[in-house]
User: What shape does this take?
Amino acid sequence: MEFIIETIDSINTTAQEFVAAVDLRNKRRNVFAFYGKMGAGKTTFIKALCDALGVDDVVNSPTFAIVNEYHSAVLEGPVYHFDFYRIRHVEEAFDIGTDDYFYSGAPCFIEWPELIEPLLPDNAVRVEILEMPDGRRKVTIED
Assistant: This one.
């Protein structure tokens, strides 16, 4: 499944389309691993997803905290946002209790999942964000 973010002004529409296409209430398909180069727009798209889910908090990348928890008014529960960019060893991610988050049933949006791939559940959904030559972004969900 593919989505195109035409401009930054259209990112919220694309996020709403993404949310409609994936069932975020499905507790067996709740881990979304966002792959993309630095600057591809992973954090910006996750912010837009949180907006679509009715998160009122300020959404920012948890680069130093590793994980941020937000409350979704739409889902009436938590949404977890991870950034593993600063992880040096997969054990660091394990030590913060990633299993508890990943198997909680709540949506988990992960930036830099390639650094913790051994910890990802088998049913994690791979989401690729690619910056196209014309500046648009292609968001691909691989099942």
